[in-house]
Specification:
Blueprint: E1 15-22, H1 30-43, E2 48-52, H2 60-63, E3 73-76, E4 79-82, E5 85-87, E6 90-94, H3 105-121, E7 128-134, H4 141-149, E8 154-159, H5 163-176, E9 185-195, H6 212-220, E10 224-230, H7 232-239, H8 250-264
Helix pairs in contact: 1-8, 3-4, 5-6
Bound molecules: adenosine-5'-triphosphate and magnesium ion.
Adenosine-5'-triphosphate binds near residues 28, 32, 57 and 230.
Length: about 260
Amino acid sequence: MENQEQFLKNKPSGIKKIVVVASGKGGVGKSTVAAGLAMSLASEGHSVGLLDADIYGPSIPLLFNLKGKRPFVVDKEGKSYLVPFINFGIKLMSIGFLLDTKEPVIWRGPKASSGLSQLLNDTLWGDLDYLIIDTPPGTGDIHITILQNIAADGVIFVTTPQEMAMDDVEKAIAMYKNPQIGIPVMGVVENMSWFTPSQHPDEKYFLFGKGGGEKLASEFDIPLLTQIPVNEKVGESCDSGRMGELTSSQPIYDAFMKLVENIVT
Ligand SMILES: Nc1ncnc2c1ncn2[C@@H]1O[C@H](COP(=O)(O)OP(=O)(O)OP(=O)(O)O)[C@@H](O)[C@H]1O
Ligand SMILES: [Mg+2]
């Protein structure tokens, strides 16, 4: 407890809940889950913001078709603020809007940490029920900044069903569970759980193994929040910046609604 007081964890006053989406491993679907969660919360009538903190590969500009855009800056009471983009009713801000992504990652690290605090505090979020933060893979600078400086209400871990993905996510969970600076772990999202061909809606093919999410959840005594199948609509909509189509297939919609239910309650 003593250590906790060394860090000034902060949350802008208009934001009710900050939820971090993390994973030890790259490419497991963190950004997809963060964006889908934001979209699904917004569709249920919540006011939502999405903050992309991935210095290595910011995804929000791509997912929401905002590549190359720069946010407006406005002055308010002698201070400059960033105006978030709004898509599907979600307020969007990305570290990608501020960083020179051609700069080597080694230089980006420390800048990104101060950049993240700036994005949280100097963006005109207004009143939000939920701010979702998408994070880079691993347990590096950005995660340390989140743990030390941001009063987050919870973290969700994304994994795929393989053992390999689980080793890395175990390390990340242990970091977020740190008794001094940790934040509540809300649970696990298993992504790419199975594939169901549209011609055979009753069949499930476990392409990447089976049961990983459940195993992880029971190992850490945390809930398995949802399982998201592999679906071509997900890849297509993400890669082409058509987020509106992300949950257009019923199994994906259902999986995200289950996640929303579990997050809200
Ligand atoms: N359930 C799914 N079905 C089909 N494709 C998916 C699914 N989930 C994610 N993908 C695709 O997999 C790729 C990786 O997903 P995403 O970018 O969300 O992962 P990430 O964990 O954020 O990666 P990174 O570590 O690089 O930030 C993307 O092309 C995405 O569209
Ligand atoms: Mg990502």
